[in-house]
C-alpha cells in the first residue's frame, strides 16, 4: 500500500514538473515579452531595464531555475493588464470553476446511473432506446453546440433559465439557492453532457454484464424483488468500472470548463484564460493553465487512491 | 504434374471463395445504421471535395441588403439562400460547404500526423524497450496527465492563431493531441509480436531492425491503428471546431464550422440559423464517424473494446 502511494505520488509530481516545464518552454518560444509590456515608443534603455528586472538577460538554464523557484512560491509574474499578481487573479476564479464542475458532475451521476440501470433492466424498450440515443448524441455533439442549443431553446425560446453569468449570492445562504441553481442549470447540463452519456452507457453495459452471472439468477430464484436484485446485487458489483470512469471524467470536466464558461459567460478560470489570450496577458494565461493542470493532477491522484481502496486487487498492480 | 496444377488451382479457388464469403458475410451483416453513417460520411467528403462546384454562391460575397436573412423555406426567407445568410449577408450553405473542407481536411491531416507519430514512437518503445521505452512512455503519461485543450490554449496564446492560407499551427496542434493512444496500443502489440517465431526468424537470418519493424511488424499492427484512427477522427474534428469556436483556430473571414457557430452566437436571439446549421453539420459528422468506427472496431479488432 505504501509503495503504491509513493509511486502514484511520484507520478503526480513528475506530471506537475512536466507541465510547468512545457509552460516554460512555450513561454520562451514566444520570444521577448518585454516590448509587449511597454508602450510602443519606450526607449531602448527602458526595454533593457525591464529585461534585466525580469531576469531575461540571464542564460536559459538560470531562467529555468529562477522560474521554478518563483513557481514554488506561486509567483508567475504580474498581470500585464490588471497590475496584480497573475496567480492571485487566476486563483480567485478557481472557486467558480470548481462549483460548475462539481455541479455538472453531481447532475451527471444523478441522471446517468438510474438511466443506465433502467436501460439495462428494460433492455431494448423504448426507454432504453431513448436513453442510449441521447447518450450517443451527448458523446458526439461538441460541448459548445449543446450549450448553444440549450441557450436557444431553454433560455431564449422557453425563458426557463438565465443564459449567462453566475447567480448573485452564496451557497451559504439558503435564500440564495433558487437563483444560484437556476444560473447553474444550463451550464451544468452542458458541461456534464459528455460525462452523463459516458456514465450512462457504461452503467448499462456493466449491469448487463453482471446480470448474466449465476448469483443474480440465485437471487431471483430466492424470490427477491427485481429492484432489490438490481440495486443490491447488481449495481454493487458493477460499481468498479463505473467509479473508474467517474474519476476519469472529473478531470475531463475541468478541461471542458474552458468551453462551457465561454459559452455561458461563467466567471471561472477557463473564461479568464481565453479572455487573457485576447488581451495578450500571458502571465495570467500561464497561471490559469498551471493552476488547472495542477488541480487535474491532484484530482487524478485522489481518484487513484480511491480506486485502490475500492478494489484491493488493484492496489499492488 | 497436371494433377498437381489442378489441385493447387482448386486450393486457390477455395481460398478465394472463402475470402469472398467472409467479406460477403460481413457486408450482409452491416446494420442499417452503419449504412446510414457511411452515407453521411461519403456525402460530407463529396461536399468537401466539390465545395466550389456545389456552393450556390461565393462564400466570401457580402450583401448588406440581405443581412441575417432566414432560410429560404421560412416565411421571410429569400429564394436561393437555402440556409439563410449571416451578419454580413453571406450565404450560409456556401460557407458550410467550404467549411467542410476545413473541418475534414484538418481532421484528416491531424489523424495522419497522430497516427504516424504515435505508431512510430509506440513501435520504437515496444521494440527497443529499456530507456527508449521509458522516455517515450513518460512523455505519453505526461500528456495524458492534463487536459490537452489547456496545452493548445497555452501554445496558441503565445504563437498566435494561424494567419495564412494554410492553418499549419492548427494542424500540428490537432495532430499531436492524440499520439499517446496509438503509441500505447502499438507498444503493447509489438511487445508480444517481437517474441513470435516469425520475428525471431527474420532476426536470426540477419534482418535489420528497420526491416523487422516496417516489413514484418507494421503489417500486423495496421488493423488496431485503423480502428483507432477512425475513432480519433471524430475527436479531432471536435477539437478543431472547439478551437475555432473559441476564436483560436481558423480565423475569420475563412469559413469553418466551429468558427461560424462561434460568430453566430452573438445573433442567437434574432437569427438562430447562424449557429444551428454549422453545429448540426459537426454533430452529424462526428456521430457518423464514431458510430461507424464502433462498428469497424467490432469487426476488425474486438479486443480494443472498452468503456
Summarize the structure.
By secondary structure, chain A is mainly α. In chain A, about 80% of the residues lie in helices and about 0% in strands. By secondary structure, chain B is mainly alpha-helical.
3D architecture notes:
The complex is a heterodimer of chains A (317) and B (307). Chain A has 317 residues and is mainly alpha-helical. Chain A has helices at residues 2-29, 34-37, 44-53, 60-72, 86-121, 126-140, 143-157, 177-211, 214-221, 226-264, 269-278, 282-310, 312-315. In chain A, helix 10 runs parallel beside helix 11 (269-278). The radius of gyration of chain A is 24 Å and the shape is globular. The N and C termini of chain A lie close together (10 Å). The longest helix of chain B has 37 residues, at 92-128. Chain B is globular. Chains A and B meet through helix 1, helix 6, helix 7, helix 8 and helix 10 of A and helix 5, helix 6, helix 10, helix 11 and helix 12 of B.
Largest sheet features of chain B: none
Secondary structural class of chain B: mainly alpha
Query: Total number of β-strand segments of chain B?
Result: 0
Overall geometry of chain A: globular
The outline of chain B comes out as globular
Biggest β-sheet of chain A, characterized? none
Task: Give the oligomeric state of the chains in this entry, treating copies of one chain as homo and distinct chains as hetero.
Answer: heterodimer
State the distance separating the first and last CA atoms of chain B: 57 Å
- Residue-averaged pLDDT of chain B, rounded? 84
| Beta-strand proportion of chain B | under 5%
> Biggest interface in this structure?
A-B, 55 and 42 residues
**Rg over alpha carbons of chain A:** 24 Å
Instruction: Name the helix and strand elements of chain B from N-terminus to C-terminus, one letter apiece.
Output: HHHHHHHHHHHH
Kindly estimate the percentage of residues of chain A that lie in beta strands according to DSSP: under 5%
SSE-based structural type of chain A = mainly alpha
Enumerate how many helices of chain A there are, as a single number: 13
* SSE sequence of chain A, one letter per element: HHHHHHHHHHHHH
Query: What Rg of chain B, in angstroms, do the CA atoms define?
Result: 24 Å
Amino acid at each position: 500500500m505504501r509503495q503504491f502511494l509513493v509511486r502514484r505520488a511520484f507520478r503526480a509530481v513528475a506530471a506537475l514538473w512536466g507541465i510547468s516545464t512545457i509552460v516554460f518552454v512555450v513561454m520562451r518560444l514566444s520570444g521577448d515579452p518585454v516590448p509587449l509590456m511597454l508602450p510602443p515608443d519606450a526607449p531602448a534603455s527602458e526595454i533593457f531595464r525591464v529585461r534585466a528586472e525580469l531576469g531575461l538577460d540571464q542564460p536559459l538554464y538560470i531562467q529555468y531555475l529562477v522560474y521554478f523557484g518563483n513557481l514554488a512560491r506561486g509567483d508567475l509574474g504580474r498581470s500585464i493588464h490588471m497590475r496584480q499578481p497573475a496567480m492571485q487573479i487566476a486563483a480567485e476564479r478557481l472557486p467558480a470553476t470548481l462549483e460548475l464542475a462539481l455541479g455538472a458532475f453531481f447532475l451527471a451521476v444523478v441522471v446517468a446511473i438510474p438511466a443506465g440501470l433502467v436501460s439495462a433492466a428494460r433492455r431494448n424498450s423504448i426507454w432504453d432506446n431513448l436513453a442510449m440515443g441521447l447518450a450517443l448524441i451527448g458523446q458526439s455533439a461538441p460541448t459548445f453546440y449543446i450549450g448553444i442549443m440549450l441557450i436557444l431553446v431553454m433560455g431564449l425560446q422557453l425563458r426557463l433559465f438565465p443564459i449567462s453569468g453566475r447567480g448573485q449570492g452564496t451557497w451559504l445562504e439558503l435564500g440564495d439557492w433558487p437563483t444560484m441553481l437556476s444560473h447553474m442549470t444550463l451550464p451544468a447540463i452542458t458541461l456534464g453532457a459528455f460525462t452523463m452519456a459516458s456514465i450512462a452507457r457504461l452503467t448499462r453495459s456493466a449491469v448487463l454484464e453482471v446480470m448474466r452471472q449465476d448469483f443474480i439468477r440465485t437471487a431471483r430464484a430466492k424470490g427477491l424483488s427485481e429492484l432489490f436484485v438490481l440495486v443490491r446485487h447488481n449495481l454493487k458489483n458493477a460499481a468498479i468500472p463505473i467509479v473508474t470512469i467517474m474519476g476519469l471524467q472529473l478531470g475531463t470536466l475541468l478541461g471542458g470548463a474552458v468551453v462551457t464558461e465561454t459559452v455561458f459567460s461563467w466567471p471561472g478560470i477557463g473564461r479568464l484564460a481565453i479572455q487573457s489570450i485576447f488581451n495578450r496577458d500571458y502571465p495570467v494565461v500561464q497561471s490559469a493553465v498551471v493552476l488547472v493542470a495542477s488541480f487535474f493532477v491532484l484530482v487524478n491522484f485522489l481518484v487513484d487512491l480511491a480506486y485502490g481502496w475500492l478494489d484491493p486487487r488493484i492496489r499492488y498492480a | 504434374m497436371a494433377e498437381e496444377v489442378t489441385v493447387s488451382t482448386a486450393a486457390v479457388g477455395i481460398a478465394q471463395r472463402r475470402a469472398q464469403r467472409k467479406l460477403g458475410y460481413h457486408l450482409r451483416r452491416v446494420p442499417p445504421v452503419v449504412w446510414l453513417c457511411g452515407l453521411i460520411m461519403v456525402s460530407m467528403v463529396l461536399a468537401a471535395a466539390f465545395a466550389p462546384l456545389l456552393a450556390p454562391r461565393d462564400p466570401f460575397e457580402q450583401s448588406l441588403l440581405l443581412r441575417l436573412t432566414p432560410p429560404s423555406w421560412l416565411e421571410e426567407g429569400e429564394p436561393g439562400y437555402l440556409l439563410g445568410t449571416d451578419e454580413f449577408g453571406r450565404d450560409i450553405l456556401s460557407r458550410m460547404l467550404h467549411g467542410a473542407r476545413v473541418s475534414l481536411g484538418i481532421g484528416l491531416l491531424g489523424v495522419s500526423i497522430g497516427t504516424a507519430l504515435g505508431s512510430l514512437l509506440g513501435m520504437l518503445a515496444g521494440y527497443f524497450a529499456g530507456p527508449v521505452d521509458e522516455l517515450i512512455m513518460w512523455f505519453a503519461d505526461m500528456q495524458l496527465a492534463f487536459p490537452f485543450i489547456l496545452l493548445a490554449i497555452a501554445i496558441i496564446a503565445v504563437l498566435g492563431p494561424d494567419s495564412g492560407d494554410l492553418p499549419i499551427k492548427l494542424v500540428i496542434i490537432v495532430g499531436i493531441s492524440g499520439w499517446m493512444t496509438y503509441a500505447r496500443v502499438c507498444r503493447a502489440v509489438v511487445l508480444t509480436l517481437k517474441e513470435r517465431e516469425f520475428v525471431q526468424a527474420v532476426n536470426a537470418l540477419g534482418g535489420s531492425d528497420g526491416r523487422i519493424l516496417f516489413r514484418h511488424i507494421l503489417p500486423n499492427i495496421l488493423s488496431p491503428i485503423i480502428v483507432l484512427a477512425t475513432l480519433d477522427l471524430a475527436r479531432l474534428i471536435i477539437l478543431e471546431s472547439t478551437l475555432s469556436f473559441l476564436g483560436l483556430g481558423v480565423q475569420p473571414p475563412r469559413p469553418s464550422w466551429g468558427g461560424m457557430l462561434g460568430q453566430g452566437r452573438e445573433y442567437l436571439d434574432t437569427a438562430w440559423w447562424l449557429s444551428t446549421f454549422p453545429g448540426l453539420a459537426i454533430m452529424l459528422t462526428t456521430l457518423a464517424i464514431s458510430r461507424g468506427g464502433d462498428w469497424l472496431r467490432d469487426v476488425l479488432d474486438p479486443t480494443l473494446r472498452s468503456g
